[in-house]
Amino acid sequence: MEPIDTQEQQAVMTIALLAAFADGRNEDQERAELRRVGEALGSSLNMAALVQDVLLKRTSLATAIEAVKSPELRRLAYELAVGVCDADGLRNESETRFLADLGQRLGLDQPTIVGAAADADELATMPLPAVGPEAGPVVAAVPAAAAELDKAILQASILNGALELLPQSIATMAIIPLQMKLDYKIGRAHGYEADKSQIKDLLATLGVGLTGQYLEQVGRKLLGGLFGKVAGGLAGSLASGATGAMFSFATTYAIGQVARRYYAGGRVMSAELIQRTFSEMLAQGKTLQAEYLPQIQQRARTLDMAKIMQTVRSN
Q1: Domain co-membership, 136 together with 107
Q2: Residue 38: what pLDDT?
Q3: 194: in domain
Q4: CA-wise closest residue to 36 among 261, 251, 274, 257
């Protein structure tokens, strides 16, 4: 696929934003999250203006699709829209109708539509680690487990940082399920059996809404040129400065460290303390990212995207 120009970047992101509102809810919290993403991405993509255009209905799906020219880019736009709809769980009826209409307007064939949806659905419905005799009883963690949890948080951060460096849309979709599994494992290590809704609530309190985080990852990859890399161009992308746009390492690190403190303290941290701790851990994660960048890059080079689902299941 050829490098994506600015107009095409904006068109693909507009389609992703329209997908974010396809659930029909259009809640204040979601609008605020999208504005935060716009501010985080800055003026290069003019994300803030795109958000306003979508919110105020100054743009349309037809207009955005018209700017998406190549078959490869049209397929990418569809895959990313599916990822947006499934970011916070399996899509609802309104989102399903939106994607069916989008696929038809983009001129995609049925196998392409079904294949993209199947990958996203598997990630959205992937269960948390099994609980049963083979997993052992839920018991309170002992002090010695702290070092093991720190190691698990670091490994998960490196993996998600590596996934962010890959051009495939499925790599972007895999980051949030891995963060949720990390949170679950940390809770279980402290004697708590959190379900997906509880984990989502904690992430929302942190200020990292699932849909917003996914859209930010998409925006950063568009700006970094990763989605325009042809097959075999990974080494070049790793050396081209695209790594400067990474944020999944630091975000995953901060989520893990806050979760460790939250569960260790009996889940009684106030929202204000959770948010302040997340901000501190995020700053620490950004510092650590530079230190672990060589490991992140090496992990990206060795990831087998054909086995990405297996990677998510096993972590």
Answers
A1: no
A2: 76
A3: yes
A4: 251
Domain end point (choices 73, 105, 123): 123
Is 161 contained in some domain?
Answer: yes
Angle between helices 47-55 and 28-41 (to 10 degrees): 160
For the stretch 219-277, pLDDT in tens is 888 877 777 654 444 444 554 445 455 789 999 999 999 999 999 999 999 999 999 99
Residues 6+ apart with CB under 8 A from 300: 161, 162, 163, 165, 166, 234, 238
Query: Cα-flanking dihedrals φ and ψ of residue 268, to 5°?
Result: -115, 10
Alpha helices in 207-304 (DSSP H): 210-224, 234-239, 248-264, 271-302
Q: What is the DSSP letter of 227?
A: G
Residues 99 and 173 in one domain: no
What's the number of domains the chain is made of?
Answer: 2
- Look up the pTM and report it: 0.86
Do 178 and 263 share a domain, yes or no? yes
The tokens describing 114, both together, are: 């079904």
Considering Cα of 77, then 79, then 80, then 81, what sign does the dihedral take? positive
Are 240 and 109 contacting, i.e. CB atoms less than 8 angstroms apart? no
Q: What is the C-alpha separation between 14 and 19, in angstroms, rounded?
A: 9
86 and 159 housed in the same domain: no
Structural domain range at position 284: 130-314
Encoded tokens for 94: 């309104």
Domain end point (choices 91, 123, 155): 123
The CATH number that applies at residue 45 is 1.10.3680.10
**DSSP assignment of 94-138:** HHHHHHHHHHHHTT--HHHHHHHHHHHHHHHHPPPSP-STTT---
* Distance from C-alpha of 208 to C-alpha of 85, rounded to nearest angstrom: 16
Residue partners of 167: CB distance under 8 A and separation at least 6:
221, 226, 227, 228, 229, 233, 234, 237
Q: List all residues 6 or more positions away from 240 whose beta carbon is below 8 Å from its beta carbon.
A: 225
Q: Is the separation of the CB atoms in 249 and 160 below 8 Å? A: yes
